[in-house]
Amino acid sequence: MVRVIVPSFLRTLARVPAEAKFEVSAPVTQRAVLDALEARYPALCGTIRDHVTKKRRPLVRFYACSEDLSNESPDAVLPSAVAAGDEPFLVVASIAGG
Amino acid sequence: MKIRVLVGTKKGAFILTSDAKRKSWKINGPLFHGWEVYHMAGSPADPNRIYASQTSGWFGQVIQRSSDGGKTWETPGGGPTVENGMPRGESNKFVYDGQVGKHLFYDGTLKPWEFKRVWHLEPDLKDPDVCWAGVEDAALFKTTDGGRTWRELPGLRTHATAPQWAPGAGGLCLHTILLDKAVPGRMFAAISAAGAFRSDDAGVSWRPINKGLHSEYIPDKNAEVGYCVHRIAQHPAKPETLYMQLHGGVLKTENAGGLWKDINKGLPNDFGFPIALDANDPDTVYIIPIDPEKGRIPPSGKLRVYRSKDGGRNWKAMTKGLPQEHCYVNVLRDALAVDAMKPCGVYFGTTGGQVYASADGGNSWNAIVRDLPHVLSVSVQTIK
């Protein structure tokens, strides 16, 4: 069971709980997690990744296990602790503005 | 009768309501708090139907829809049709049709068109499920299913002049859509910094209507496009006449865009963003001059609405109830609107968060609310 935490703005928009939990088949990659998240909460489509290219939006970051995974390949396997549900996959709104 | 003022701000939306007297207002909001709301617009065919453009530099574009006059909202992309009852994300999907193409960028290079946000929503005159959207980078989209899905009408973005269009400081935005109430199928659109355009076939094909415009930023005095049009307005009682607030010019055409002529004599300056017409009189024009040289603030720190009652020949400053010293706000292009009452109500929002209202055609003003976030847009519904 993968655990995903999204920013509060997106929780409100898409009615996502504080921590979303769902199964992801192996291999557990960034792409697989986000595909599953969007399938479960379709109002998130286009808010984290571009609708068409599926590229991460510039001011959104991905963290897990105290690491910034934002610029990793979307098809790279995520840390085993994420796949096991021991650690959450964090979707973070980057700091910007005043 | 009831008046509903829809206010989009940099941090959410607000709905201000009053009875026909327009003296006592109820303020509801913030809606979509924390998100920029570039525009909200109610359907002329069904006042309970309201569309909102909710957008964010972080999370992109969201279209919201209300079917009960703003009490409740939904992202309408398919409704609760998926397994767990969640709406689909299709209503947020604005994808250019076909080849994307390139447009001129600040540095003189050509840059691919890239969707950023919806600037303006224009609900159809007859069908509440039909709505038009003007977007950045400039293009025209349309929904025919109440906002569930959006499709581009590519005729405008693929016009032969489009590679010459360059963004203004606010972006390459299609910010004005006028649906002609008198001539079926005729539409007007305006883009910064490309100019004004006209369609006679409901948005399928377009032609520039910029003859007579002038700009110190364009060396070619006969340039077909490249003008930073800030806003255009039309009145159904005189559909061949349109008014324009240009980036440096207030102009008028009496042949539906065939030729524009200056009408700025008597104004403190010719720069500003919005322009609007009195609902009861096609010759009464409202503008709000802004000083472009001092940081886009009201000239001399005085917030004045200028009104012409004779189609732009003579202008008079409307000041009663507006700050006449130390006022340094701006009023953006979509932030001036009128109601359909007699006398006409006029409303505008400022970058300082005030929303001012006049219930007597601009003679006197009151602030409905003073401390909202930076106001991006104001639109008005007159509800019977």
Which features characterize this protein?
A: 98 residues, alpha+beta, Ubiquitin-like (UB roll), B: 384 residues, mainly beta, 4-stranded antiparallel sheet
Q: Secondary-structure blueprint of this entry?
A:
The complex is a heterodimer of chains A (98) and B (384).
Chain A: E1 2-5, H1 8-14, E2 20-22, H2 30-40, E3 60-64, E4 67-68, H3 80-83, E5 89-93
Parallel strand pairs in A: 1-5
Antiparallel strand pairs in A: 1-2, 3-4, 3-5
Chain B: E1 2-9, E2 12-19, E3 26-31, E4 36-42, E5 50-56, E6 60-66, E7 102-104, E8 110-112, E9 117-123, E10 131-136, E11 139-143, E12 151-152, E13 173-179, E14 187-192, E15 195-199, E16 207-208, E17 229-235, E18 238-246, E19 249-253, E20 260-262, E21 272-277, E22 285-289, E23 305-308, E24 316-318, E25 336-338, E26 346-349, E27 355-358, E28 366-369, E29 375-383
Antiparallel strand pairs in B: 1-2, 1-29, 2-3, 4-5, 5-6, 7-8, 9-10, 10-11, 11-12, 13-14, 14-15, 15-16, 17-18, 18-19, 19-20, 21-22, 22-23, 23-24, 25-26, 26-27, 27-28
Strand order of the largest sheet of chain A: 2-1-5-3-4
C-alpha end-to-end distance of chain B: 5 Å
The total count of helices of chain A amounts to: 3
What's the CATH H-level homologous superfamily of chain A?
Beta-grasp domain
Instruction: Tell me which protein chains meet in the greatest interface and how many residues each side has.
Output: A-B, 26 and 22 residues
Which architecture of chain A per CATH?
A: Roll
What is the gyration radius of chain A calculated from CA atoms? 12 Å
| Oligomeric grouping of the chains | heterodimer
E-strand count of chain B: 29
